TrEMBL record:
Quaternary organization: Monomer.
The keyword Cytoplasm is annotated on this UniProt entry: yes
Enzyme Commission numbers on file: 3.1.1.29
Gene coding for it: pth
Protein name per its UniProtKB record: Peptidyl-tRNA hydrolase
Amino acids binding tRNA: 31, 85, 87, 133
Main localization (coarse): cytoplasm
Catalytic residue positions: 36
Feature type site, description Stabilizes the basic form of H active site to accept a proton: 112
Top-level taxon: Bacteria
Reactions performed catalytically: an N-acyl-L-alpha-aminoacyl-tRNA + H2O = an N-acyl-L-amino acid + a tRNA + H(+)
Amino acid sequence: MSSSDVTSRNTAAVTTGPLLVVGLGNPGPKYAATRHNVGFMVVDELAERALPAPANFSVHKRSNAEIAQIRIGERPVILAKPRSFMNLSGGPVKALAGYFGVAPGDIVVIHDELDLEPGIVRLKIGGGENGHNGLKSTSKSLGTRDYIRVRMGIGRPPGRMDPADYVLRPIPQSQCADLAVQCADAADGVELIATSGLVIAQNTIHSR
């Protein structure tokens, strides 16, 4: 979906209701430093930025997720990390949306993207899942694809490596500095979505 397509849809308005920001990933230390968990990393970055002090995550039993409630500008924001594995992400997302009364258009899902080069961040609403099991589960559970995505480029695996193996391998130390910049860009994008809307966020982040 092009930026012009996004602009033609109801994406520019900024509401005062809560924004649900979900980082996709797998639970547990085994997966913490893998490419598949970059969504968790961005949500952690947003929690660290919270004012007046960094926010702590706690278990939200009704949704099987860890959450932190913050404000970005004047807007309440729920940061979430599902405690289910990636292919079951939709259950916690739907439960959180129902509990906090968040419509799909106010849900932001942050995920790894094989079809973007490492370091690239792209924002969009709707579209397909490109084989991403976390997005497939989320779309199925919500009954719609019309939620916002923050796409974190990780690139394609080298040679004939299986993409499933690639996304679950730890990120090399040599790439960690660039990843930190990418996570900061993605967090900037989420903050702009919360305060200024998707179109302004796209124009800002996509020009970097």
